Give the backbone structure.
Amino acid sequence: MAWIVTCIAHSFEAHGKRIFKPPFLGFVRQWISVKYAQDPLRNSIIKILDAENVSVSLDEIDAPLLITAVSQTLAETVPMASRGFASIKASNQLLLDAILSSSAAPGYFPPHTVGNEVFVDGSLVANAPELVAVTQTLSMTAADIKNLHVLSIGTVGNRKNDQHRHPGSPGIVKWMVSRGLFQLTLSAQERMAVEQCSSLLGDRYCRLDQVPTDEQSRFLRLDIANDSACKILTSLAEDTVNSALQNDRFRIDGFLSHNTARSVETLKTSTKTANS
């Protein structure tokens, strides 16, 4: 787990600026097209995970994996599950296609087309994806909810904003521009998912997240990956971990010592039971 976390952090630092390179006429461009091209994102995914690995379909992957996207074509949520998670119900999407589908944030990256279906970012419906993970685990396997433990890692993006204190009578343009309707929607459904998971799982649900200050928030956005953002995110992550270890050491140690291999075998057994 330590290697995976370190890899994610280093990947953000190494590839973030390349993926989110400020486009020419960026402010104007975002009103008529997506802000960023898909190729730098695709190339970074391949470089991080290796071309051979991302060319494997999810129904060939034994590790439990669930990636959420939204089908623009069918107007529905599409949970893409690996063989290790869903057995015979696994998705036949290539891992690269699943990741690109789930990364196609509207306005930032173009929708991703696979066959005749068009996908966009799963965060539209699952910005906090743990609720999807819980419900899919219960529906695809014979797992008992009493045996589910969830460690949720946030993105320091859920911050209450003063701009909604005076509602007024904003029109469509004002809602989209100055009122941040898109971000408001993501934040509201993220809070709802966190609250529902907490209600369902109780102390078996552990959420690690940090609320940035107003000053820090100026440097934090989905498409900001500069040195200032890296420093702030690293500082917030360190504060979050230190606080969790100080206040909830027992539960954190339990998650960190979790035997993934044993859980995979248990999940396979549960899935076979559910499908029989």
Summary: The chain has one domain: 2-155+172-275. DSSP finds 14 helices and six strands in the chain.
